[in-house]
Amino acid sequence: MFRRCHLLVAVLLAAACGSRTGREEARAPQEESVAASGSLDATAEAAPEGGAGTEPEAEGDAAAAEDPVIDVPAPPRRVVIQATGDYLLHTRVHNSARFHAAVDADPDIAATEGYSYLIYRVKPVLAHGDLNLFNLETPLATERNQQSGDPPMLDGPPIAAVSLARAGFHVASIANNHAYDQDLEGVVETRQAAQDAGLLVVGGGANGDEARAPIFVERNGIKIGILAFTETVNRTTLVERTSGTVPQVAIWRGDADLETIRSIRRQCDLLIVFFHWGGEFDMVPNRFQRQTAADLCGEGVDLVVGTHSHTLEEVRRLEGPDEAACVVAYSLGNFLSNQGLKYRVGWENPDPDRAQGIPYTRDAAMLRVTYEEDPEGRLQLASLEAVPLWTENNWLDRFGVENFENDIWVAPLFASMADPERERYDALYEERLGEIKKALGEDVTIVEE
User: Fold this and answer.
1) What is the CB-side half-sphere exposure of residue 307 using CA atoms within 13 A?
2) pTM of the prediction?
3) Which residue has the higher pLDDT, 250 or 342?
4) HSE-up (13 A, CA, CB side) for residue 432
5) What does 129-146 look like in DSSP terms, one character per residue?
6) Residue 326 and residue 321: Cα distance in Å, rounded?
7) What integer pLDDT is reported at residue 7 of this predicted model?
8) What is the distance between the alpha carbons of residues 126 and 368, in angstroms, rounded to a whole number?
């Protein structure tokens, strides 16, 4: 009786341990002793003939009291953090959403007014992350300023935030140069729209304190802190550096913000910093980015998520305090936009400096950073990977098409190539994959999904 119970307990413990999510780790052998089971058999066989079977339950109970407790070690803590770049709702992107809201049968596309159509192909990639982050570079607010101009004014509906949350995103940064496009009130409305959709928001708020406040998230027993900053904003006349009572985004203040980071780092296991910085359409980080990245890593930041250039820039493993790894993604490009619409593989763009023709603005990546606990209980960088993304845009197909409609969407590069018209994508696939690998650098391993 006891032997069966003993075996059943062991089976249940093994099943419970194996059902935990995450990668299986090598574990020390179980402390369960074969000799202990053998001694029970020996005791039963050596019992006096007259007493064998007279009080089997009492004998089993005594043996159970002497059996050692099985100590099953908890699996190491592990967390997968994913991040991508700028979510930009240009006019033609809006047009694509509205068109598909009316014609697609998918109820989720209709329920989100077509905005799910733009991004749903990335859902399988987002499913790999315990925490997924992006830069919300379009205010989701009342349109006070028409979407036009140079630089353009951007705006979008709150339902767009719902599509992002349903796709699998968790955290949005609103610290970027377009944050004030719909005036100061637009900052508060954008934050509220994202929060109502279930997203956590960092980098902007109703006042200075809210804009600079960290958010904390716990995943798999790991406490993660997140902050966000921008180097500049487009509408500088709205900046209130000396007042904490008006809506703001967190514009970088140098040493003052480094001091904040130093304090926040002591309150969490991992610290992530969004940074909207550098030059638009640059392919390499500038001196300010490199120096600031070194400063952030020196304060113990574990992951820097850079945006703003609309292009991919290198991802580097730098060194933080106590030889800890600090991952810096200088720019993760555009997650979704209408930029690069004139590009087609093999086509010579006569004006390559314009956003409409640069193919690199359609390259993107979902950065995947995995941390695991070592035997001493310290979180260590376990892997650094990226899924290449590509934005499809049919603008060049409009010639000779009656009632042409914009069709814009983002997908994993490998998935976007799995198309019935495969032959049209072969050259594009090879070209863009090579460019994405080169841009991200050798520290990153490319994965399909």
Assistant:
1) 33
2) 0.83
3) 250
4) 29
5) -SEEEEEE-S-BS---S-
6) 9
7) 40
8) 10
